[in-house]
Amino acid sequence: MAQATSIPLTRAEKYRAECVRWMTDFKPNLFVTFAINRWVSMDEAQRTFEEFHQRLDRKLLGRSYFDRPGDRTVYIAAIEKPDTNIHIHALFRMTTEQAARFEDVAHGLWTKLIAAGNLDIQPVRHTEGAARYVTKALRPETSDRLLTPPHMETTTKIAA
After folding, report:
1. Where are the alpha helices (DSSP H) in 5-144?
2. Taking a C-beta distance cutoff of 8 angstroms, is the pair 16, 139 a contact?
3. Strands 118-123 and 87-93, bridge-based pairing
4. Which label site among 74, 120, 124, 147 has the fewest CB atoms less than 10 Å from its CB?
5. How far apart, in Å, are the Cα atoms of 26 and each of 20, 34, 40, 128, 131?
């Protein structure tokens, strides 16, 4: 009887598996795809996404949102296809009340920033599956595409 031998994971597979574990442990409740529908640089996509996040928290929490980091929404996001069809997949974690208001305010905020843009907003039903989708194009050499908000403390270190 032949013994099954496991094939060692490549560096890229280990990196992705660690990202999936981190995102699963994050326990997100919304999965959002931010389509830009025009060419922008990765830097511009990131700046626009971060501006969206600030505007979102201001809508949800009021003008003092910046002074309330514990109440703010948090996300783990990844920029995908920067050379052809740049878009961002994001896993958000927020309160039930914030999630209920998200869809009402998010579309308007995004289209004010990206006129041709659109959103696909889904509740997270299977966390690991959502994390696998977000990480499908992530590799150690593309780790600069992984985004978290500046106010979110990240204690997990993922070696690129």
Report:
1. 11-26, 42-61, 96-113, 127-134
2. yes
3. unpaired
4. 120
5. 10, 20, 29, 10, 10
Which strands make up the sheet holding 118-123, listed edge to edge?
118-123, 30-35, 87-93, 74-80, 146-147
DSSP at 155? -
Q: Is 53 exposed, middle or buried (0-12, 13-18, 19+ CB in 10 A)?
A: buried
61-77 tens-digit pLDDT:
999 998 998 999 999 99
> Hey, what are 144's tokens?
């600069």
pLDDT in tens, 81-128: 999 999 999 999 999 999 999 999 999 999 999 999 999 999 999 999
C-beta atoms surrounding 130 within 10 Å: 21
- Both tokens of 72, joined, read 């703010």
At 91 the pLDDT is 98
DSSP 145: G
- Judge whether residue 156 has pLDDT over 60: no
The whole-angstrom separation of Cα 44 and Cα 136 is: 22
The amino acid present at 101, given as its one-letter code, is R
